[in-house]
Amino acid sequence: MTEAKLLVCIISREKKLEEVLEALLEKGYSGASILDVRGMLEYLADEIPLFAGFRSLIHTETKKNKMILSVIPGDAALNEAMDIIERVYGSFSDTNTGIMFSLDLSNLRGLKF
Amino acid sequence: MSLKLLVILFIILSYAGVHLIFRKRTLGILVGMEYLLVGFLFSLYDTNARLLEPLLYAFLGWIGLLTGTQLKISYLVRLEKYFYSNVIVFAAVKILLISCIISFFIDPYYAFIIGISLSPVSFRSVAQYIKKDRYVLFFTSTIPFVTLVCFFLFYLLQLTVETINILFLFIAVYCIISRFVLTLVNEKDSINLILVGLIILISQTGALLDVSPLLINFIVGVYLANFCPLSDEIFTSLYKDEKPLYIMFLLLVGMLAGINTDTAVLLYGLLFTAIALGATFVIVRVARFRLLSTPWHLFAAPGGFSIAVAADYWLFRGGVREEHWMSSFLLCAVMLQFISGIKSKFYENRTSKNSL
Questions:
Q1: Which residues on chain B are in Cβ contact (under 8 Å) with A50?
Q2: B246·A55 Cβ contact <8 A
């Protein structure tokens, strides 16, 4: 087991993504991967509309949750990164705003701290 | 079996059928038009169904507002110019072709409104089979806007100058009032009630002045989509209960319009169906519009929007029960939906076999 942690952060306000990444970069957290993800309820609610086809097409093209994956060297850095995200993005305590957690990593290759 | 028992049986069947018809992605062949047929059963009773007309005005208002709130300029500019020219020419050619041929058989005014009503394509029918081709999906979803513009122009031609002035004054006043009322919303939960109030107010006062509820709500919807800060919430509120409202709308149309059982109505219904199928085949296969890779019969399904346009005009012409042109049109719309649905099932089976 290494000291490294995997920070997983899913945000629903896409507009805030750039600000969050810039804030992390300023503090030296330069490695992160960004993925487009969809919530379970959002997926299940994705039915074919009767009258609102145009807007639903536009909506599916634009509305995407973003997942930030970043490997962080240790607990102290992880807490700092999480605080930065929460400060820029806002609190995760409100419903449907997003979710953030960390995982312990083992057998890490391809990354040196 | 007595008529009462038959109606009760159909109500029970329709209740059970909601799940089957509107189950996610797997649709019934008629895409909910079964409820139009249930409505026809109600119309067999000799009741004073005209008392329900204000409800139909409200439902048409809801469809108009829902359609209008989709039209945000910021969305429209994302699509290419050639796309719009293709959609406009497709809709115009379909309207002209169908209405010109039908006008050999019936009054040109009614022929033209049938042509306009048959020009939209059911987005739900197409999206069920075409899931990845964004061009085809956007194409299908944009046609109703062109249909409404053509309907608006056709509608204006039949109004006096005085009524046109009232119409535009009415539109301007309601755009301003709607926006003002909606900016007073404190809690987003209360937006539903305000929208119901607005739809009823606009549609019913429109009815008093003989102004189309579908068109006027559409224009108010476009205004709100572009100039109201709560436009996204308004759209979500109008859209989220789409299916139950659609069922009620079809039931009402069936109950109010009824169906004329003359042999001539049946023959005209069959004739209109053949003309619409032929016109769609020619347009998609010959003129193409970049739709050649899509089965042509998918573009023959008219969907609920076409019923709304025809019902709106039918009300404008006095809403006479069992009117010949309306009965023939409704028969034609159900048959087109049925034929398109059956052919699509065959297409789906064939493509799934080929992919194995």
A1: 31-32, 123-124, 242-243, 246, 303-304
A2: no
Structure tokens, A43: 């997926």
Q: Which amino acid is at B290?
A: R
* φ, ψ (nearest 5 deg) of residue A72: -115, 140
pLDDT in the model for residue A38: 76
Please judge whether A53 and B25 are an interchain contact, meaning their C-beta atoms are less than 8 angstroms apart. no
On whether any CB of chain B is under 8 Å from the CB of A50, the answer is: yes
Distance in angstroms (rounded) separating the CA atoms of residues B141 and B288: 17
- How many folded domains does chain B comprise? 1
pLDDT of the residue at B51: 84
In chain A, residues with a C-beta closer than 8 Å to the C-beta of B304 are: 50-51
- Spatial contact of B304 and B32, defined as CB atoms under 8 Å apart: yes
Residue A111: inside a domain, yes or no? no
A53 reaches B (C-beta below 8 A): yes
Q: Which residues of A touch B127 (CB under 8 A)?
A: 48, 53
CATH code of residue B112 = 1.20.1530
State whether residue A37 is helix, strand or coil: strand
Mean pLDDT of A22-28: 90
* A62 belongs to a structural domain: yes
Residue A97 domain-assigned (yes or no): yes
Structure token digits, residue B290: 């970049």
CB of B174 closer than 8 Å to CB of B220: yes
Separation in Å, CA of A56 to nearest CA in chain B: 9
pLDDT at B4 over 90: no
- CATH number for A68: 3.30.70.120
Task: Tell me, yes or no, if B4 comes closer than 8 A to chain A by beta carbon.
Answer: no
The complex's ipTM works out to 0.82
Q: What are phi and psi of B323, to 5 degrees?
A: -65, 140
**SS3 call for A71:** strand
What is the pLDDT at residue B69? 93
Q: What is the mean pLDDT of chain B?
A: 86
The sign of the dihedral angle between the CA atoms of B78, B82, B87, B91 is positive
pTM assigned to the model: 0.80
Residue B18: pLDDT above 70? Answer: no
Q: pLDDT tens digits, residue range B293-329?
A: 888 888 999 988 999 999 999 998 888 888 889 999 9
